[in-house]
């Protein structure tokens, strides 16, 4: 099992130490969120800093979007990071969440996302592409940078199976959702005449570790709200949501506060909303690796048994170094299965 992590870059002064410690803890991949008008620092500045202080981990935007940057700008940025890192970069895209909402925009259509991916691939592979009727060029790229899609629903997962090198799955990892994910990816791959085995599959997990499970759940609650708000925003169709949770999830969508998206702490109203609506246990089981160290080891082993090979975490913690100390032990134990 490969394991990754996505740190919110909210303090570049300490970021070098954080990513170096993350690499030392045995993590395979680090994601850098790409969102504006929030507490996050600029994605590609952060990514450059990351590659300057690591030697092994892969890293890239998790997640960027097709609206805030021209594809040639994104291609040049990620290809530059790839060159700097010696081939350790990737790019992960979706239709847009806080990175577009916080600028007063609406998410892209899937057709726009598909066009963007194809333009990136043409630029990486041939140095030339057509975008919205115009010629664009990028002549110096040394290798095709892997392109991932972050996908939650059936249509997005099919698109990932059709055009992407990999996918970051936000639909959760219950026994009933993992086969659905594989089905949707396979349908997309077959549409493109390729095998689903060509798609590198990662699952996004919200994460927190504490001495007591209830304390970890309190830490992770705002992140569970963010995961639900993103995964179920457009529709619940094809997402295997039990009937008893349909209305609470819709209520969470209506009341979710984007201005405190993923901010840790008990004062985050989104975390309190998850608890108020009775969604904590359900969302934690579906979308999180959370609890004591033993709980987290058990959950990772359960996911391996479901066929989940790769997990990238979004920790919801105040003490990041304490989390890494715990997670290093968790990862070692889970991999010794």
Folded structure, characterized:
With 337 residues, the chain is α/β, with parallel strands linked by helices. It has a domain at 1-145: Luciferase-like domain (TIM Barrel, Alpha-Beta Barrel). Helix content is 48%, strand content 16%. Strands 1, 2, 3, 4, 7, 8, 9, 10 and 11 form a nine-stranded parallel β-sheet that branches. It has a two-stranded antiparallel ribbon with strand order 5-6. Strand 1 (2-6), helix 1 and strand 2 form a beta-alpha-beta unit. Helix 1 (12-24) packs across helix 2 (43-52), helix 6 packs across helix 7 (177-191) and helix 8 (213-231) packs across helix 10 (269-276).
In total, how many beta strands? 11
What is the H/E order? Answer: EHEHEHEHHEEEHEHEHHHHEHEH
Oligomer: single chain
Gyration radius, to the nearest Å?
19 Å
**Taking all residues together, what is the mean pLDDT?**
94
Task: Return the CATH topology of the domain at 1-145.
Answer: TIM Barrel
Strand content: 15-25%
Q: Largest beta sheet, briefly?
A: 9 strands, parallel
Terminus-to-terminus distance: 10 Å
Backbone structural class? alpha/beta
**CATH C-level class of the domain at 1-145:** Alpha Beta
Count the helices. How many? 13
> Architecture of the domain at 1-145, CATH level 2?
Alpha-Beta Barrel
CATH superfamily of the domain at 1-145: Luciferase-like domain
Helical amount: 40-55%
Bulk shape: globular
Q: Can you tell me the residue ranges where pLDDT is under 50 for at least 5 consecutive residues?
A: none
């Amino acid at each position: 099992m490969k394991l990754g992590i996505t740190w919110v870059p909210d303090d570049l002064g300490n970021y070098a130490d954080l990513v170096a410690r993350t690499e030392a803890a045995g993590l395979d991949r680090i994601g850098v969120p790409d969102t504006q008008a929030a507490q996050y620092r600029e994605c590609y500045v952060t990514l450059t800093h990351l590659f300057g202080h690591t030697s092994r981990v892969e890293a890239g935007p998790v997640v960027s979007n097709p609206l805030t940057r021209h594809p040639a700008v994104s291609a040049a940025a990620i290809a530059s990071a790839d060159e700097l890192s010696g081939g350790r970069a990737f790019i992960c895209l979706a239709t847009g969440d806080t990175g577009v909402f916080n600028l007063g925009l609406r998410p892209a259509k899937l057709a726009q996302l598909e066009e963007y991916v194809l333009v990136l691939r043409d630029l990486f592979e041939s140095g030339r592409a057509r975008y919205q009727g115009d010629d664009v060029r990028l002549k110096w790229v040394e290798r095709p940078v892997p392109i991932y899609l972050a996908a939650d629903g059936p249509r997005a997962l099919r698109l990932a199976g059709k055009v992407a090198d990999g996918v970051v799955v936000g639909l959760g990892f219950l026994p009933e959702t993992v086969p659905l994910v594989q089905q949707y990816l396979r349908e997309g791959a077959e549409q493109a005449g390729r095998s689903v085995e060509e798609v590198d599959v990662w699952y996004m997990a919200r994460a927190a570790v504490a001495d007591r499970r209830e304390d970890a759940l309190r830490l992770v609650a705002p992140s569970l709200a963010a995961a639900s708000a993103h995964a179920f925003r457009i529709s619940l169709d094809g997402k295997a949501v039990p009937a008893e949770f349909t209305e609470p999830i819709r209520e969470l969508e209506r009341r979710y506060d984007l201005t405190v998206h993923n901010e840790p702490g008990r004062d985050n109203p989104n975390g309190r909303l998850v608890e108020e609506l009775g969604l904590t246990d359900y969302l934690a089981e579906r979308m999180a690796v959370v609890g004591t160290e033993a709980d987290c080891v058990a959950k990772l082993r359960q996911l391996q048994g479901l066929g989940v090979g790769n997990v990238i975490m979004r920790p919801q913690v105040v003490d990041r170094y304490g989390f890494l100390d715990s997670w290093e032990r968790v990862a070692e134990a889970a991999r010794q299965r």
